[in-house]
Design goal:
The protein is α/β, with parallel strands linked by helices. The chain is 44% helix and 13% strand. The strands form three sheets. Strands 3-2-1-4-5-6 form a six-stranded parallel beta sheet, with helices on both faces. Strands 11-10-9-12-13-14 form a six-stranded parallel beta sheet, sandwiched between helices. Strand 4, helix 6 and strand 5 form a beta-alpha-beta unit. The longest helix has 32 residues.
Length: 485
């Protein structure tokens, strides 16, 4: 009886079944997440809104704007039924029970927090639009990666501008998606994390959002916390993963200097159940939109909390990541007789990892910059990256590369490996695309300049086989004997 009384005291927006969800932002988080929600919850209408007509048109076309294995199939099954992509932002917010904020939160490039703090311009804009449009109470969910206490800031913005008798409950529900496996991560998550206020209304709002996920996720995998813990958990998860990559990459430098083999070291320590084997693959460094941004966010938080030593600790993860890329290019220069001037270098991969077309913070960007600074000409081979996107990344003012020089000296191929490698002095493996393992490297060897070099920055090729063909092989975390026999 007491339980019924408690339920009766809930406001309607915290007790009625969820029938309509609006997601602000049709990017890498909002698009896939809401497509899976629509797929698993056919009784819920899901509207993904964005101000970019071009992006919305792409979502409504057969060629959706994001490459992610399994995503297009889900979108095509649901679109026009209970999944809709539209620019009608205000209309969709008005009729939604839950509004996800999934907008971009890039690192600030100006003012206070330059290079560290997240830029919350789009989050603030979304919150102000919600408060202006909403005529009835709603649950607001921050899906974007945001700093600790962002939910509190969003709540204050909503309260300052809302209509009479309109109430909001703000939840933190960070995503833990890995690009390339995002759909599987959404369909079979390790956990769902929801943070909210500790009062009754906060707990009821968490129950409402949880009820959506419970359509396909076991309730035991849904973790509930306060908003601070949820926001910090997201930053910490990415920081810890990046830390593992920088840790193993630091050991790869020791391996190259000493003669140890990083793959053997990784395998040996990965058998320790306290450590585990994941994220122990040495490489040219991590990329993507999250790791560097979230560590910078964490550093900025520590600095503001007067935790200098903690900030310095996490900064070192980024230092090692930059060091690994520069160290790799330095080896290329040394092996090519200390000059790359007018030499053709072929990069295999420009995306930051396989199974995605995302190039944000890709290690290939800095590799290209260093090679161009040395005078090289570059051909890039990547099955999913578009030429315009590659040029956009290389045109970043921070790289200080003249755009006309970039367009003249950098070419992109999607599939033609022979043309990409013809006359090249070296192949540099920057992305671990599976197709790179299938090429006929003997045929490629015949069309390259001699001596022909392979620099494996992802440890995906058979180095012994390449050496037997005649290649001069170098790889992250390995020391090769190039003595003529």
């Amino acid at each position: 009886m007491a339980s019924d009384t408690l339920k009766d005291s809930r406001p309607e927006f915290l007790s009625k079944p969820i029938q309509n969800i609006c997601c602000i932002g049709a990017g890498y988080v909002g698009g896939p997440t809401c497509s899976v929600i629509a797929y698993k919850c056919p009784h819920i209408q899901v509207n993904v809104v964005d101000l970019s007509q071009e992006r919305i048109n792409a979502w409504n076309s057969p060629n959706i704007p994001i490459y992610e294995p399994g995503l297009n199939e889900i979108v095509q099954k649901c679109i026009g039924k209970n999944l809709h992509f539209t620019t009608k932002v205000e209309d969709c917010i008005a009729k939604a029970d839950i509004v996800f904020i999934s907008v971009n939160t890039p690192t600030k490039t100006y003012g206070v927090g330059l290079g560290r703090a997240p830029d919350l311009t789009y989050v603030e804009s979304a919150a102000r639009t919600i408060s202006k449009v909403a005529k009835n109470s709603k649950i607001i969910v921050e899906k974007s990666t945001v700093p600790v206490k962002a939910a509190e800031s969003i709540t204050n913005m909503l309260k300052s501008n809302h209509h009479p008798n309109v109430e909001f409950q703000v939840l933190s529900n960070p995503e833990f998606l890995a690009e390339g496996t995002a759909i599987n991560d959404l369909l079979k998550p390790d956990r769902i994390l929801i943070g909210g206020d500790n009062d009754d209304k906060g707990k009821w709002a968490i129950e409402q959002l949880s009820s959506v996920y419970e359509n396909w996720v076991d309730k035991s995998l849904i973790i509930t916390t306060n908003t601070w813990s949820s926001e910090l958990s997201k930053l910490t998860a990415n920081a810890m993963l990046a830390q593992r990559i920088s840790s193993i990459n630091s050991i790869s430098a020791i391996c190259e200097a000493s003669g140890a083999d990083i793959q053997e070291v990784s395998k040996a320590i990965g058998f320790d159940t306290r450590i585990g084997s994941k994220f122990l693959q040495a490489s040219i460094g991590f990329g993507g939109s999250c790791f560097q941004k979230d560590i910078n966010n964490l550093i900025y938080l520590c600095e503001n909390l007067n935790l200098k030593e903690v900030a310095d600790y996490w900064h070192q993860v980024l230092v090692i990541n930059d060091y690994q890329k520069k160290r790799f290019v330095d080896k290329i220069v040394r092996c090519l007789f200390n000059t790359l001037n007018n030499k053709k270098i072929t990069l295999f991969g420009f995306a930051f990892k396989k199974n995605t077309g995302d190039t944000r913070e890709s290690a290939s960007i800095n590799i290209c910059k260093y090679l161009l600074d040395e005078g090289a000409s570059i051909t890039v081979l990547d099955p999913k990256v578009e030429y315009e996107q590659m040029i956009f990344e290389l045109s970043n003012p921070q790289l200080n590369l003249p755009i006309e020089m970039v367009k003249r000296k950098v070419q992109l191929y999607s599939t033609d490996v022979i043309e990409a490698c013809k006359g090249s002095h070296a192949i540099v493996i920057c992305t671990e695309w599976d197709i790179f393992k299938t090429y006929d490297y003997k045929e490629i060897f015949e069309i390259m300049q001699k001596p022909a070099h392979v620099f494996d920055g992802r440890l995906i090729l058979d180095h012994q086989h390449l050496t037997s063909i005649g290649y001069h092989v170098e790889a992250v975390g390995k020391k090769f004997d190039h003595t003529l026999k």
